[in-house]
Amino acid sequence: MEEVQKRHRQEQKELQARIAQKKKSATKKTRKGIVDECDNLERQLKEKQDLELSTVNGEAASNGQGEEGDIQDIADSPTEPSVNDKAPESRIQHPAPAPQQSKNDQVRKPNRQKARLARRAAEQESITIQAAEEAKNLPDLRQAESSAMRSHYSSRGLSEHEIRSDGHCLYAAVADQLTTREYGLTPEPALKDFQANTQSSVPQYQIIRAVAASYIDDHRDDFLPFLEEPLDQYLRKIRETGEWGGHLELLALAKAYNVDINVLQSSGHVERIGGETGESNQALWLSYYHHNFGLGEHYNSLRQAD
Questions:
Q1: How confident is the model at residue 88 (pLDDT cuts 50, 70, 90)?
Q2: Helix (H, G, I), strand (E, B) or coil at 270
Q3: Among residues 265, 303, 261, which one has the least CA distance to residue 283?
């Protein structure tokens, strides 16, 4: 029994390490799938270990009952009288009734079950504490990323305008760049399927989404090789949902507005995504975060420092 519990503790520790590694490497788009996968791994391990414990406990109980049954059978078997034994019927000894279980015996099994559950909970808590201690020794990726970004902003004369952390952050950051740099939200030349909605009630990021979708739709041959789903479904997500944007959407926006989009990363690398002509003097600046926000990947707008 102790060997089984020791092996279970080791399996739980290894699983927690695997889960921590998976969650650490998750991106914004894969986070939900990895969380579901981790939940399934934990549930499968628990079911497997519970089954093993039940099997071990069942075998022990079965062996104990077999021995007691054999002894009871011997005790219950009456001694056959001999042929010459003429003792009166009143003197014949009848088998003694089986002793009834005391109240202490009746509650003993539930107490053993409760003790096992308590030990299991204590082991799980110990594993959780150990995992937390190990996490303390890991580098603070958020703090390191923020510190590196601030240094890059200072060296390039930029200041960060923080964008709300949601699925619209890329589009909202581009909209902030276009308006603060006075480039305008309407692309030139006009896109075939784009109709600008400049009503004040329409969020600016929604206009940018419409521009990205329209450009991809007008130039579908340039984007189809990179899509993993039908084009109409992909465009619907851009126009009508809060789906995150990435490199393809930035490329479409750079070409639609004929601007260069510079994406500054914590390593100091600047990814330049060129416009339609490739010779534009107009440029947008975005910052890209991988660790600093709860939803994972995030874009902010970079303005010229005062």
A1: very low
A2: strand
A3: 261
Local structure of 114: helix, strand or coil: helix
Question: Which stretch of DSSP H or E encloses residue 291?
Answer: strand 283-293
Assign 96 a pLDDT band (cuts: 50, 70, 90): low
Q: How far is CA 225 from CA 30, 220, 222, 233, 245, in A?
A: 21, 9, 7, 15, 17
CA atoms within 13 A on the CB side of 185: 24
Report yes or no: 290 and 283 within 8 Å, Cβ to Cβ.
Answer: no
Return the number of other C-beta atoms located less than 10 Å from residue 15's C-beta: 17
Dist CA 181 CA 184 (whole Å): 8
Cα-Cα-Cα-Cα dihedral sign, residues 214, 219, 225, 231: positive
The CB density around residue 210, as the number of other CB atoms within 10 Å, is: 21
Report strand pairing: 296-304 vs 158-161.
antiparallel
Alpha-carbon span 123 to 8, nearest angstrom: 10
Q: Residue 41: which residues within 8 A CB-CB, separation 6 or more? A: 15, 18, 19
Tens digit of each residue's pLDDT (9 = 90 or more) over 130-159: 777 766 666 678 888 889 999 999 999 999
d(CA 177, CA 167): 18
Residue 116, exposed/middle/buried by CB under 10 A (0-12, 13-18, 19+)? middle
